[in-house]
Amino acid sequence: MTRDDRRGGWRLMREVSTTNRRWITIGVIAALAWTAAKITIPLLALEAINQGVDPYDGPTLLRICLAILAVTVVTGACTFLRRYSAFQISLRAEAELRRRLFDHLQRLHFGYHDRAEIGELMARVSTDAKQVQMLLVFIPVGGANFVMILGVAVVLFVLNSTLAAWSLVALPFLAIAGTRFSQRVHPVADDLQESLAEVSHVVEESVSGIRVVKGFGAEELQSGRLRTAAATVYRRGMELARLRALFNPLLETIPMLGLVAVLFVGGRQVIDGNLSVAALIAFNSYVLLLVFPLRMTSFLVAQLARASASASRVHEILATETEVSDRPDAVTLPGGAGEIRFEGVTFGYLPDVPVLRDLDLVIRPGESVAIVGPTSSGKSTVARLVPRFYDVESGRVLIDGVDVRDVELASLRDAVSMVFEETFLFSDSVRANIAFADEDAPEHAVERAARLAGCQDFVAALPDGYDTLLGEHGYSLSGGQRQRVAIARAIVADPRILILDDATSSVDPTKEHEIRDALGEVMRGRTTIIIAHRPATIALADRVVLLDGGRVGAEGTHDELLRTSARYREVLAEAEALAEATTAVGSVPEPEASS
Ligand code: ADP
Ligand code: MG
Asked: Which residue among 77, 264, 426, 453 sits deepest, i.e. has the most Cβ atoms within 10 Å of its Cβ?
């Protein structure tokens, strides 16, 4: 990992965590108020003894006790706000990170990345986004605790500098031991997680590919793999237990040293008449107050390293192709009915190899248009230019009259949803995958979308229904099932413009009519671009555009083109032959690819 990646990783973390300034402000204020309140309490207790108990002054004692209660209430309120804002910030950051990766992966050319590679990438990406989330959620608490360490140290030195020095002497060792502990434990815990996943992977593979395993006499091989994986789990689990057993006594003993030092040195001062008992008690409270923040800080230091590595990895992925970015004066995409307009668009991935040549195309609001064309004619490219995955070389792409380069990407991509042949599912629950565009989507909206997309039956058959984990470390769905999840995802997103790029191709032809109903449902009331080969799917569209040689070769309804365009008939026949060939290959009993 280069230094650039690391720097990029930090920048990325900063970018995704500062999207929500309001919550950051609330979190910081709450954290500082919490710290101040926490530090005040032992001081108030000291006052209660000095001004209330010692001089036998009942009313003063009561007043101070009430003050302590009030401060405690403040602490509670601040804890709530601090935690709440921390989750707001970190979960949103995680979502933003995933979203960027998702957008990025949608841009990739599938010819260059095979499916397994993308599956692996997705799994890693989910873990990495989680690591960053784990760090961010602790930043407000960690920051507050750090300020607390400083604040308490200052108070201690003001109260009694000798005693302060004695009480603090053991604590740096606690920080060091804590950091070492986290650093040693984290990788082992990750490895354990990984080998657990490997076990379930082998089991699942053996079960879902049972025919193949038996057919090729691979039982011995599979059970050997399982034995190895299980042995690894045992070894790593023991390693983890050993580390915990080693460090825990150390982490518990060190703070005691500080307390014993305070008791001994402070006790002597009390005996000599140099310190009041109340001050000694206050001192003890402060030393105890330090234990948690110190452990927290060491945890945070270790997590910082992990999250930074994760963020760098994500950055590395994002940086594989230069991304389009917001112009400084970008505006939110204004509301509209979803008109798409390509004006003289020329575009290619490589210099001097144009894929689209001076393409003009208008799709009216609410209209559904099928784009048909030979393989590699640029159908997917047209689709990718609408949400601005790439910038055109010349000409313009307009949505509701606004050039896509003039609007904020986030608002553009909220307005445009895509469903692909290859569907990315995150290593997360079915529910989370469907609610991807809107994590706050209510239960019934998710289930309605699933029903419309025809997911209901197979989801009901999953071990945990909507909570079943998918992906590399979870359950793998068939190609057709994945596509239905993707369609459900698009329904939840409720976009102005929907793009279906070969979205039904891996659906079993006997099931295709179900999907077609679902598609009809999603397409209603929104502008839709549908890229398809099967005539029945193409016929769903109001209008068909034949893409040929980088421009529009012919357009009209499916029936019109069948009658009038020889080229159209030719392209359809070719596509049909191709589809048949793929279906024939698909009927060989293959184990389900897991991704
Ligand atoms: P279609 O969807 O009609 O099959 P595409 O739009 O995917 O065609 O691709 C059009 C042409 O652009 C093809 O020759 C393809 O190889 C090329 N291409 C597509 N994506 C990329 C990419 N990311 N990098 C380089 N070339 C690409
Ligand atoms: Mg394509």
From this structure: 453
> Is 185 in contact with 240 (CB distance < 8 Å)?
yes
What is the spatial distance between Cα 81 and Cα 195, in angstroms, rounded to a whole number? 38
- Best residue for ligand 1 mutational test, from 342, 353, 355 (most atoms within 8 Å of Cβ): 355
**Measured from the CA of 531, which atom of ligand 1 is nearest?**
2
* Residue 461 tokens, joined: 């058959």
pLDDT tens digit at each of 595 positions of the chain: 567 777 888 888 888 887 778 888 888 889 889 888 988 988 898 888 888 888 888 898 999 999 999 999 999 999 999 888 888 888 888 888 887 877 776 666 544 455 556 666 666 677 788 888 888 888 878 888 888 888 888 988 888 888 888 888 877 787 788 888 888 887 888 788 777 777 776 776 666 555 555 556 666 777 788 888 888 888 988 988 898 888 888 877 887 888 888 889 899 999 998 888 888 888 888 888 888 887 787 778 778 878 888 888 888 777 765 567 788 888 999 988 999 999 999 999 888 889 999 999 999 999 999 999 998 899 989 998 998 888 899 999 999 999 999 998 888 888 998 887 767 677 778 888 888 777 778 888 899 889 888 888 888 888 888 888 886 656 778 777 888 888 888 888 888 999 988 776 666 666 677 777 778 878 888 999 999 888 888 888 999 999 998 999 999 999 999 999 999 999 988 877 776 666 554 443 433 433 3
pTM above 0.85, yes or no: no
Residue type, 500: L
Residue of the CA atom closest to atom 21 of ligand 1: 109
DSSP 3-state assignment of 412?
Answer: helix
Contact 465, 443 (CB under 8 A): no
Residues with a CB atom less than 6 Å from ligand 1: 109, 111, 349, 355, 373, 375-381
Point out the ligand 1 atom lying closest to the alpha carbon of residue 384.
6
Amino acid at 546: L
- Measured in angstroms, how far is the CA atom of residue 373 from the centroid of ligand 2? 9
